[in-house]
Amino acid sequence: MARVVLVTGVSRDLGARFARALAAVDGHEVIGVDVVPPRHDLGAASFVRADIRNPVISKVITGRGVDTVVHMAVVATPGSVGGRSSMKEINVIGTMQLLAACQKAESIRKLVVQSSVSVYGASPRDPVRFTEEMSARVQPRTGFGKDSVEIETYVRGLARRRPDVVVTTLRLANLMGAGVDSHVTRYLSLPVVPKVMGFDARLQFLHPSDAVTALLLATELDIPGTFNVGAPDIVTLSQALRMMGRPSVGVLHEIAPVAVGLFRQARLVDFSADQIDALTYGRAMDISRFTEATGFRPRYSSREALAEFVALAKPGVLAVERVDHALHLLARVLSPERGNSRA
């Protein structure tokens, strides 16, 4: 079991949630790292202000005797860090520096990396569900998907160079739940949602609390390899829009990038070409490998995670019994009969 754990990206919501939960486990000393102070409570975890893009991160690891690193400093939206170039630098250069520090540190015994469903891209030739052995039918060309592919390449390189380190990569589905701020939730929250004509994307979600549970399991157990993590069910884009009470407007596939450009200029959304594809064709993952390895069972289905977001979102103009339906689904999730998702 890990003793001294360094968690990157704790200024963001998921990183803070995970650091707080891990610090509550007996026998763990948790060190949260980020370039800015955390906006959320870290509980018993300590905080060190450091930039993983700087070699100084190596001094933090060796100086504190870190044996486990959980890397969550991955940025999905360029607007949150000042643009695509900054996003690329944090995601790729930051990961390279961190992995270099892990390779040199003799104390390191485990590395857990948060990756994303984005590595699978999105195309009309995709399988019903991607397994971990499959690769994208159309490789991600821009943005977060491309960064995630590069990050995983560097992580596999470290695993080869340090066979004594247990390296686990979790490909998380898109997060969904109350208060989640992402390109998907911003898109679904538009007053009128542009939807590519002739397509109904398949959406698979993961509630943040289930993401934390999955990360805890990966930290506590020795499960080397790559694993898909998400809720088992699928919600189509049209179903999601009905739950949100949002009207949609049909857009020809050929002019979708132009429409997104107009929304970007209005500062409503900031999508890459790959994210447009994901909201056109959709994608889903097979999660059986992680379930078999850990016994993980998400507490929230994709529909229930969306229902929690809907219950607190601004009502759409077409909302009819929307909130009642969302609260009914949430009541099922929170009922005592629902077991804990931890193995």
Automatic annotation (TrEMBL):
Domain of life: Bacteria
SUPFAM superfamilies, per the entry: NAD(P)-binding Rossmann-fold domains (SSF51735)
NAD-dependent epimerase/dehydratase domain ranges (all copies): 5-230
GO molecular function: UDP-glucose 4-epimerase activity
Record carries keyword Isomerase: yes
Keyword list, A-Z: Isomerase
InterPro entries assigned: Epimerase_deHydtase (IPR001509), Lipid_A_modif_metabolic_enz (IPR050177), NAD(P)-bd_dom_sf (IPR036291)
EC number(s) stated in the UniProt entry for this protein: 5.1.3.2
Listed PANTHER family: BIFUNCTIONAL POLYMYXIN RESISTANCE PROTEIN ARNA (PTHR43245), NAD-DEPENDENT EPIMERASE_DEHYDRATASE (PTHR43245:SF52)
UniProt-recorded name of the protein: UDP-glucose 4-epimerase
Organism of provenance: Microlunatus panaciterrae
Organism lineage: Bacteria, Bacillati, Actinomycetota, Actinomycetes, Propionibacteriales
